[in-house]
User: What shape does this take?
Amino acid sequence: MTTNFHQPVDAAEVPRFAGHSTFMRLPAVTSAAGLDIALVGIPWDGGTTNRAGARHGPREMRNQSSLMRRVHHVSGTEPFSIANVADVGDLSVNPIDLMDGLKRIEDGMRTIVEARAIPLSAGGDHLTTLPVLRAVAAGRPVGLIHFDAHSDTNDTYFGGNPYTHGTPFRRAIEEGLIDPKRMVQIGIRGSIYEPGEHDWARAQGIRVIYMEEFIRRGAEDVMAEARAIAGSGPTYVSFDIDSIDPSMAPGTGTPEIGGFTTREAQALVRLLDGVDIVGADVVEVSPPFDLAGMTALAGATMMFELLCVMATSVAKRRAGS
Amino acid sequence: MTTNFHQPVDAAEVPRFAGHSTFMRLPAVTSAAGLDIALVGIPWDGGTTNRAGARHGPREMRNQSSLMRRVHHVSGTEPFSIANVADVGDLSVNPIDLMDGLKRIEDGMRTIVEARAIPLSAGGDHLTTLPVLRAVAAGRPVGLIHFDAHSDTNDTYFGGNPYTHGTPFRRAIEEGLIDPKRMVQIGIRGSIYEPGEHDWARAQGIRVIYMEEFIRRGAEDVMAEARAIAGSGPTYVSFDIDSIDPSMAPGTGTPEIGGFTTREAQALVRLLDGVDIVGADVVEVSPPFDLAGMTALAGATMMFELLCVMATSVAKRRAGS
Amino acid sequence: MTTNFHQPVDAAEVPRFAGHSTFMRLPAVTSAAGLDIALVGIPWDGGTTNRAGARHGPREMRNQSSLMRRVHHVSGTEPFSIANVADVGDLSVNPIDLMDGLKRIEDGMRTIVEARAIPLSAGGDHLTTLPVLRAVAAGRPVGLIHFDAHSDTNDTYFGGNPYTHGTPFRRAIEEGLIDPKRMVQIGIRGSIYEPGEHDWARAQGIRVIYMEEFIRRGAEDVMAEARAIAGSGPTYVSFDIDSIDPSMAPGTGTPEIGGFTTREAQALVRLLDGVDIVGADVVEVSPPFDLAGMTALAGATMMFELLCVMATSVAKRRAGS
Amino acid sequence: MTTNFHQPVDAAEVPRFAGHSTFMRLPAVTSAAGLDIALVGIPWDGGTTNRAGARHGPREMRNQSSLMRRVHHVSGTEPFSIANVADVGDLSVNPIDLMDGLKRIEDGMRTIVEARAIPLSAGGDHLTTLPVLRAVAAGRPVGLIHFDAHSDTNDTYFGGNPYTHGTPFRRAIEEGLIDPKRMVQIGIRGSIYEPGEHDWARAQGIRVIYMEEFIRRGAEDVMAEARAIAGSGPTYVSFDIDSIDPSMAPGTGTPEIGGFTTREAQALVRLLDGVDIVGADVVEVSPPFDLAGMTALAGATMMFELLCVMATSVAKRRAGS
Amino acid sequence: MTTNFHQPVDAAEVPRFAGHSTFMRLPAVTSAAGLDIALVGIPWDGGTTNRAGARHGPREMRNQSSLMRRVHHVSGTEPFSIANVADVGDLSVNPIDLMDGLKRIEDGMRTIVEARAIPLSAGGDHLTTLPVLRAVAAGRPVGLIHFDAHSDTNDTYFGGNPYTHGTPFRRAIEEGLIDPKRMVQIGIRGSIYEPGEHDWARAQGIRVIYMEEFIRRGAEDVMAEARAIAGSGPTYVSFDIDSIDPSMAPGTGTPEIGGFTTREAQALVRLLDGVDIVGADVVEVSPPFDLAGMTALAGATMMFELLCVMATSVAKRRAGS
Amino acid sequence: MTTNFHQPVDAAEVPRFAGHSTFMRLPAVTSAAGLDIALVGIPWDGGTTNRAGARHGPREMRNQSSLMRRVHHVSGTEPFSIANVADVGDLSVNPIDLMDGLKRIEDGMRTIVEARAIPLSAGGDHLTTLPVLRAVAAGRPVGLIHFDAHSDTNDTYFGGNPYTHGTPFRRAIEEGLIDPKRMVQIGIRGSIYEPGEHDWARAQGIRVIYMEEFIRRGAEDVMAEARAIAGSGPTYVSFDIDSIDPSMAPGTGTPEIGGFTTREAQALVRLLDGVDIVGADVVEVSPPFDLAGMTALAGATMMFELLCVMATSVAKRRAGS
Assistant: This one.
């Protein structure tokens, strides 16, 4: 362990409800410089077409992340010992102006990327992933492993709006931010607008794995395919909390019954091991529709699961260099 | 597609929270004439012995059904293209007078049946199924596929009351509305009043499948048996939301832990394919005990799943005629 | 009574939880033609800077307005007998695009105004009042009686955004839609950004009545002044639900303690009698933060109070013509 | 103090959340024999026309009544020292059968009356007051002091139903249980069905005091009149929780804004001093719509306020005899 | 059936929401004398390090236990026919003083044990199990089958506090109350403080079965091992409600995603058949964080499942003696 | 304005839901050095005898305090311009050990006092005021102005416990921390344990003003007396949120109906002007029982009202020196 890495407050010393609320009780820092992984909030739901509220996601995920401890009980990973991690605060946003909101998020994220920290962000709605990718994938398209109930590759809404939380991945592909042949979507389900709704995605080369296929095959098999699709190149991981069942994640804007259990979601993320993750997010946690912090806890725990995989990868890279 | 079929409002044009609330955003019509399938509310919980509130079910199921889209993502069914479907409103009810309530529901439902529309109703408590069957099964007993935590074949309550939401199927059999040899109950669980509580049902010929048997055998096997039991005759499908686990459907009056997941419930209903459904319902959604519309969403989605199966059957019949 | 006026469903015949939900259980009509007063929803919160959710306001105000009956118990007004009133549905909105949202609302409202119906709208956030005024006050500035915790005459937010729910009245004055000398704000309270925050408003001639002044003087005195300020010219009435105390209207986005009681709010609105109201609204009801429909009920009742005053005015005008 | 009177559990010894839940932490007894005042629950909402749930009222009022202590802080009354009071449990009810429900309540209440205990009941909806009066007023009509938002003197609902929570006092007068000339209603408000809706009540001689009159005159003046109306004869006091404002009593089925504050309600009940109370109730507490027990606490506290007045009266009578 | 055993109130006679609330609607008795199994509440959360509220657990579990009926639908067990069971009320507690709280619970539980009744308690936080074991295991260490998300074998908190709900089993082993070689923990999961956090437990001989191992092996296999570990000696069963997934048991203080489904939990407890249970508990139900009684219902149902196993054992012992 | 005073984040630049949550959006600092007024959280409810949860108060009051702006709209006070104010975080607490908790709070508060900052703390339950007074009143007794529903001068609970949230002021007087002749309690109400319950307080010289006296006299008169009682000496102000009515502050542990309106509470605190405040607190905000942050908002606003009075006093002192 590099002893100067940031360490979380210990819940056996300071109770979880005490102290300023930060992601995983890590120090709040004002710059990503020196960090391996930057935990960052994006309190913005400007792209939401149904129930808003994901703007409140980062605050509640910070609160609930006080339940995270230092060591992963299965893998044994100690993320805060093998990587330097801190809470860099929330990106600047604009709840009123969609285009300005996109720009602010991109600019904020670019600062993190330029500091050579890998971002792990807490949304915000899924449209936040677009400006994040503009910063993270600048210069070269990335692979994408996408957990979601919805494909989010629609074209336009409300008579021509190209930017909503239902369209980020179409835009990202059009902008060359994602290599669609290195993209996989897992957990897609629920009724669709048109029979060919996922044709465009498939035509780009995206592999769309419906929930029903996941149920048949299981996490191991599906993730083996996902890792093969992503390959060894830089890959972004986007986790929409509505991929999890609404009973376990009620606080979200577009719930679909029949989702992942949290056990399945944990298994899926653990199987990301070995992927070269250049950024990740957990999005669409909407506290106004939640109960007792349940969804924010699920979101915070998925962030911890992602962090463990990411920190392991950071440590390997450091060891290898 | 017969272009003059009613079509839902498109959520990519009008947001889901906008406009008058109808089942699946279909037009509200004043008569079932010309419809293949009539979506109808029965806001009545006069038979409820524990927590009331199912009277509010239709309104909330309408609200949450705005999340339904046009196409089933697995079967590809486009129910609104192959069948004429609309929202015929709520049946007349009487929250104060049980016998008058039963009569009003029967009368209202008879109008729909006489218009040759197949009813898919949103309850209301499970006693609503009795007057519905009086209209739907008039003249010939029907088969019945029944998803529920409870058998609902008790005899009387509170010193002799024959009509409660715990007794509809005993009454329906006594009245010759159901052919008990063509009846199956799936998902039954929870403690019971007396050791022989289900003896009467079994003695009539009803096949009672406990949750534990379902867990062992799985949806495919159980539904193969259910389809065989129902046979090719006219069959009614009754879906009590409390068959689903309380974590996924907390808004109900008599919750029992250990229920179906929504994934299992969807699988079960999809396996109704081929059954000659002459009517169906989703009952016992009780919004006062719900969170963020979760149970109403589960109920509305089960209605959509049922609708897809029913519309397919309608289309086949039309094609065959 | 003109017998062909639209009449509400009677709760002694059809229970309040039954039937399609419309404002005050009036018929849903597709055009404002022939109406004296058009009840209309504006499900849009694109201007909200803090907690969103007012987009869900119209639906819940419709639901709770089922508690309204036919006659005002104090004034004896029978609004549905002296004016033709109906629910014209929701205006078209765009939750993603602020400028398009403003335009859609203006266009929709213009259709109502051109049909010579007086609009009584249910928001939506307070920015909706701007496009409404663009339609209602086209051609001549109107007086404005404004109940609110906040002045909503700020200039810009988030680095220059001119359109938020904190700015509609500054914009409306700049656009010549309001005659600021005929404008009064009642109930203003809570901490402010800058010492001179209300100087601009006062410099325009707006009369700003703080809650503390209201407490000292009482409703009668304050409304006598308000009526004098508005004078006999055409006047718009805007009622922000956050003028009411958060205990009585918790479901709102920017609550301020120390507000009106609902009794005071009712007294204030009843004292509008004699004002030439050319349009009115109740805004900022945000159901995701509400309890058991309490705020929506307060909003719906304020709509009924406004309606009684407006219908009386309509009847007088008709009698006078 | 008669030392063998029942005493409540002391919260300084046993915390309020501990132990079996009874009214005011008094012993649960199986018979009213020997009691001066019997606290009794009537868990029945069979007469409810809108939102049900008052059936759960007694249980929650018991829970919240654990916050009551032994002495009234203003009057100094020690009800448990000057009267023998206990919790006699819940009356037998029937949630399914209205006529049987009415009969069971009447029979149960008659047992209490015949034991010469004065009942203070926790409803249940307001229809429960009818069978209570049948027991309490058997043989001679009583005076009635009635706190409510609604007059509850309607005739019939839903095509002729004479028994609902909107009709108990018309039925009671028709049955000769109430002397309408000794009856007063306080707090009536909200829109009404017909212009002459309260004409029948007034024609019987009932004094109807609207909320607006109460606001003008205040509690002292209004209650002086009420006491004069009731006179020295036996009088029943019926307190509908919806007389209190929905912000302070959200858990009820037919809320009307603009109600009493709890301070006003307490003042009103304290001014019952000297009235010969032969029975009293607190009705329409509906926990499913409540927050954190707030309404049940208001109901339990109103029961305590009533109890103090009733116990004082009992003590005076005993002293006088 | 021994006809003089206590019997629950029948929900087909008295509705579930009526009457005083006791565990499973059994009589409230003042002494455990004559009972085979004593149902008892321990309303105390003095050891809670995060969110408090388990002090309210017994009251709500009593309320929700009204949904239990007389017969187990799978095993056919009729616990109230083969064992004498009653509700002995709540133990004396002290919410302010931890050491006095521990002593009161131990003393209260000793009274039950000395009456030769087997306790089945409703917590309360998990620290309550320590004083219970002091009474139950007095004189000889017991085996322990422990269902939980957390091992609860930590050493100290907050600078040296030895008694918290995270430490009871370490203390119990140190005090010789548990034979660690006859102890198994099932369902352990979630991030941990230190890499060797469970080393102490394992070093004592405790078998720690992580959730992931349970998922792989299933209930049958795991419980076969658990029964072998417990052997034929006296064994205590401790069921922490947070072993169940937070979606099914949100009302708890230290939720961890990825828990047992209630179906799995039921299966696990049913497989306790044959174990010589000398006491059992269901702990950590915290109603302030619950929805509509869902967690309390899960807790009450687990109590019923435990009761059926315990009653069977009691009956066998009686038959054998 | 001293330009180097800490300034809050501007909500017109950064939305209220964004950024790390601190009191009034001020900087989080690690030491009170250089501050005039230190905002500090005390997340501890170890003295709570009924419903716990005040441990979560500071976090939610921080969240809701984001609604505070820079200027008091009535007095024109700009607290952040005339005093140096910041958020010094939460004091160290111990949720498990009452005596250690008291010591930690006293020690933490002493550090603030020794840095010559005036503390304005957010509780926590009312027992926190005792250790705060030990630090603030060290060396000389202070006057105390106390807003509360309860006198909190009881002696012991649960068989002799001297330290609970019902006893802090008796202990503080016994310890010589308060000059009881300079102490006044305002808003006391609700039933009491014993007839002479407030005799001890009065015997010490405490002036106890019941709610009923406040209603008669009004805020101006009562506060004139309160200021006279406190005199010109150093005075502590303790504001229990349960002094406010439960409808406006439902999130608290021992609610009493009939409380202050928030308007009254604001008026009372504003009339503290001129008092030499050496410390203040807002206690007993318990988020688990709250709705949509309503109580925390009331608490945060009362903190802002107190801050304005305190900052004015600081500025006067500075000007005078």
Observations:
- Strands of chain C lie at 37-42, 85-90, 118-123, 142-147, 178-188, 207-210, 234-240, 276-283.
- The CA atoms of residues 270 and 305 of chain C lie 7 Å apart.
